[in-house]
Design brief:
The complex is a heterodimer. Chain A is mainly alpha-helical. Helices cover 45% and strands 4% of the residues of chain A. The chains are: A mainly alpha, B mainly beta.
Chain lengths: 559, 326
């Protein structure tokens, strides 16, 4: 009797223990923010957008930028070019598909995509306290910036890997494996985001909002994205649209929302588009509220930017200050990654950039250049003076110690008065897109459209501005298509040198193999000599992505 | 009850001994499928492993990856999840070996099975992607591609550079070929192509392209000048040609006539560089010393030049004539 009773009690207790666990696990968590309830105010949406910008400031993102954009190309030598390291294999084009830098660049850009996708996917959860025009505008501008950033990250991906998977805005546990889209599809996706960002944002943010991307930045990148899709020497609608955008951006020829969107009424009703992009719905509009139509003019950019060496207040600065703290958000700056010393209030380097500039301008720089390259790059151009050699003096009198026979760019230099207290910080912004590049893109598009004489005018704008450095007078001379193309590419190389875009520029010019192999042929270590034309213009999809997707994500040809 | 406990205990003990039993190694089976066995340079080879193994590696057979030399630093590639992709950058025949391995704990015993197949990689590129005269003064002028492997190069007689007009001879021009393979050989009129050599393009040039694989493909290059007037006179007054440095097919001719000259019905006298050149206003052919033209407004002539060796090879220019009175 006692034993049976004991057994029954024991079994009952055991069952109770198991049933008790059930409720405990299912209990709703109260008071915590989740992705379902977080995005209910524009302030929270802004904080989510900040996380999207944050990737641009991360060490890994910038490490990948200079390694792929500069170190693989022909303007620098590197301190890590041995085949024993991942970096050495990368710059020698003798890597395999498991190269860690190739994976890093892939993941850091997708991390950016993921963060801004959360802004875009959740924007409609924002509740407005009052249906004011300004409230809609605030949300719209956050959404517009998120769209730009998504386009920016995907542009990085497509120019590095070709067509990549387009991630859904809402990720679910059942839907992690996404096959690759074609490069054309990815470019179309990027273009759509940029076109919409262009109508959602003001021309250019100033003052305390100066670091945000505006309509001008979106249009400049739209030009660049079009340029990357076009082939030099082959007529295409991409060149024509670039030219049209240049006429708007630089010459001030007006453009409407409908023009830049390539708006097609059959595809989407205008009012539906307005609602999707957070323009105030027509039915809520007050008589004093603006109402945007497809014929509304885009905010003019002609006077928002200039080649003049002037800071954001209109005060004169030097050519070099365009790259220092003094020239942040200057008249010629279209897109900057904002760095702020000790931004988190500590001396650590969380979210305030890293030692990138100090790393290049140091006693053992990661990349440097040689007098031979400098001669080839600049000849007698005045911009040559902004290269500095070992034991030479920077403009503020500090001595450069970068190693015998090495030269570095003063674009990497942080003047002593601007240097951060903490060596791990980065006190000045990184310039990613400058107005000079917009001018040169416009010049190239004009030349590709058979308007060499207009191209020459644009080309000589940047050259004549550079001439003011020393009072030089040499300008480019008109010529046939090929000569103009070569001069534009020469000017691009000079004006935009050491801004971490050389490799991708060579690839889109369809001459990476020729230039990089020639460079490798002249180097004792043959770095670049193994570049395989038709293959190495794109890097492989990281092997891990192939493996975890069980081959659904397919590898690039040749790898 | 006691009996039940004893039975349970016996079962547990026997299970314990069973679990301690040494793991047996399965027999590896090396078996693969490959998407094809003949590849071109840089074409992707896709291998799926279909056998049984704990670990799979593949020796691709090219430099440093030869199975036969595996004891001499040659290595294979580890295959993840049964999928392996590769491409060859040098043509040849390669023995691809797949090694399937199974092993016991701590790899105290390893069993291997191999299978192999031969792949042939050929470099059979004979396609000319682009063809140019690489140094027309400072310009690179590209030829146009026509059907049947014929190309047409159209050059300017003179190139305006700053204030000078430099003559461009057909007799000595450097050619540049854009061909995807470095191994492809090019013969120009039967002689090996040299990038620094200046070729005479006056007559059609026979170009023979031979791939590394041995395929021979003949091309023909025709070269003509953009048509322009040799001389152009109105009422005996010669016109002055102004060239465009940007567009070799566009010219302006200025003619200054005495004040009071009636320009509504002038008969131009012009000479041409080539007997095959034709001059039109719109679609109406113009004959020197015969066709009357009203020069009140600027007049645009259209000139068409045809290769004497192939009537399909044509170039067109626009010449705008501006008449003004002194």
């Amino acid at each position: 009797m006692n034993k049976s009773l004991f057994n029954i009690i024991l079994i009952s207790c055991s069952l109770l223990v198991f049933s008790g666990c059930d409720n405990f696990l299912d209990k709703e968590i109260l008071g915590n923010s989740t992705d379902k309830n977080y995005y209910d105010t524009k302030y929270k949406l802004q904080s989510a957008l900040n996380a999207g910008y944050d990737i641009l400031q991360s060490d890994l993102f910038n490490e990948c930028e200079w390694r792929f954009g500069e170190a693989t190309a022909d303007d620098v030598w590197g301190g890590d070019e041995g085949l024993a390291s991942q970096m050495g294999q990368l710059v020698n084009f003798r890597f395999n598909t498991s190269n860690s830098w190739i994976a890093d660049r892939y993941y850091i850009n997708y991390k950016g995509v993921r963060r801004v996708n959360q802004v875009i996917a959740n924007v409609d959860k924002v509740q407005l306290s009052l249906p004011l025009y300004g409230e809609y505008r605030d949300v719209r501008e956050i959404l517009g910036q998120a769209k730009f950033l998504r386009a920016f990250y995907y542009f990085n991906l497509v120019k590095t890997y070709g067509g990549v998977p387009i991630r859904p805005e809402v990720e679910t546990i059942d839907n992690f494996v996404i096959p690759r889209s074609t490069a054309a599809e990815v470019y179309a996706y990027i273009e759509k985001d940029l076109r919409e960002a262009a109508i959602m944002l003001p021309a250019r943010y100033t003052g305390v909002s100066a670091g945000k991307v505006g309509s001008g930045t979106a249009i400049a990148y739209l030009m660049k994205v079009l340029m990357y899709q076009a082939t030099p020497g082959e007529p295409s609608s991409k060149w024509k649209e670039m030219k049209r955008l240049g006429e708007f951006f630089i010459d001030g020829v007006s453009m409407t929302y409908g023009d830049i969107l390539k708006y097609d009424e059959a595809q989407e009703d205008w009012e539906a588009l307005r609602k999707r992009l957070w323009f105030k719905p027509q039915e809520l509009n007050q008589p004093t509220d603006p109402y945007e139509t497809k014929n509304t003019q885009l905010p003019a950019l002609q006077n928002a930017y200039s080649l003049d060496f002037k800071d954001s207040y209109g005060m004169n600065i030097t050519y070099l200050d365009q790259f220092t703290g003094a020239g942040e958000f200057c008249r010629g700056s279209v897109f900057e990654v904002v760095f702020k010393e000790s931004a988190d209030g500590s001396l650590g380097d969380t979210n305030e950039g890293s030692f990138l500039y100090d790393t290049f301008y140091s006693s053992s720089p990661q990349i440097w250049t040689t007098q031979t390259i400098i001669q080839d790059l600049f000849g007698t151009d005045p911009r040559r003076t902004y290269m500095i050699g070992h034991n030479s003096y920077a403009p503020d009198g500090t001595i450069c110690v970068c190693g015998e026979s090495r030269n570095v760019s003063l674009k990497w230099y942080t003047p002593i008065k601007e240097r951060p207290q903490n060596g791990g910080d980065n006190s000045k912004n990184r310039r990613v897109m400058r107005y000079a590049e917009v001018i040169l893109m416009y010049a190239e598009a004009l030349n590709e459209c058979g308007e060499g004489s207009r191209a020459l005018i644009e080309l000589n704008k940047t050259k004549s501005k550079a001439n003011t450095i020393t009072g030089a007078t040499a300008l480019y001379v008109g010529g046939g298509y090929g000569y103009m193309r070569d001069q534009i590419w020469k000017e691009r190389r000079m004006e935009l040198c050491y801004e971490w875009d050389r490799f991708f520029d060579l690839v889109r010019q369809k001459r990476a193999a020729t230039v990089i192999k020639e460079y490798g042929f002249l180097r004792a270590n043959k770095r670049g000599f193994y570049f395989r034309e038709g293959i190495n213009e794109l890097f492989p999809i990281p092997q891990n992505e192939i493996d975890i997707s069980n081959g659904v994500v397919e590898q690039n040809p040749g790898y | 009850m006691k009996t039940i406990i004893k039975v349970c205990l016996s079962v547990c003990i026997s299970l314990l001994f069973v679990s301690c039993d040494e793991e047996s190694i399965s027999t590896p089976v090396a078996s693969v499928t490959v998407n094809q066995q003949e590849f071109s340079i840089n074409e992707t080879m896709v291998i799926h492993f279909t056998g049984v193994a704990d670990q799979v590696s593949i020796y691709t057979g090219d430099n440093m990856h030869k199975y036969d030399l595996r004891t001499e630093s040659n290595t294979g590639f580890v295959v993840n999840k049964g999928l392996f992709t590769y491409s060859y950058s040098v043509s040849g025949q390669y023995k691809v070996v797949c090694v399937a391995s199974t092993y016991s704990d701590k790899a105290e015993e390893i069993r291997q099975d191999t299978c192999s197949f031969i792949v042939t990689v050929t470099d059979d590129v004979t396609e000319i992607d682009k063809l140019s005269c690489a140094q027309v003064l400072y310009d690179e002028v590209f030829a146009q591609k026509y059907p049947n492997d014929e190309w047409l190069m159209v050059l300017p007689r003179k190139v305006k550079y700053s204030t000078a007009a430099v003559a461009i001879p057909l007799t000595g021009q450097r050619l540049k070929f854009y061909i995807q393979s470095d191994s492809t050989k090019v013969l120009i009129n039967g002689n090996p192509y040299v990038s620094a050599t200046k070729y005479n393009l006056t007559n059609p040039v026979d170009i023979q392209v031979t791939s590394n694989y041995g395929t021979v493909r003949p091309y023909k290059l025709y070269t003509i000048y953009y048509p322009e007037f040799d001389t152009f006179k109105l009422n005996g007054v010669a016109g002055t040609v102004v060239r465009s440095e940007f567009d070799y097919s566009y010219f302006e001719i200025g003619v200054t006539l005495p004040t009071g000259t009636d320009v509504t019905n002038l008969v131009p006298e012009f000479s041409l560089f080539s007997p095959t050149d034709k001059v039109y206003i719109g679609d109406v052919e113009q004959i020197s010393g015969s066709s009357a033209v009203d020069f009140t407004q600027n007049v645009s002539y259209r000139m068409v030049s045809t290769s004497p060796d192939n009537p399909d090879m044509q170039a067109e220019s626009t010449i705008k004539v501006k008449v003004k009175n002194q």
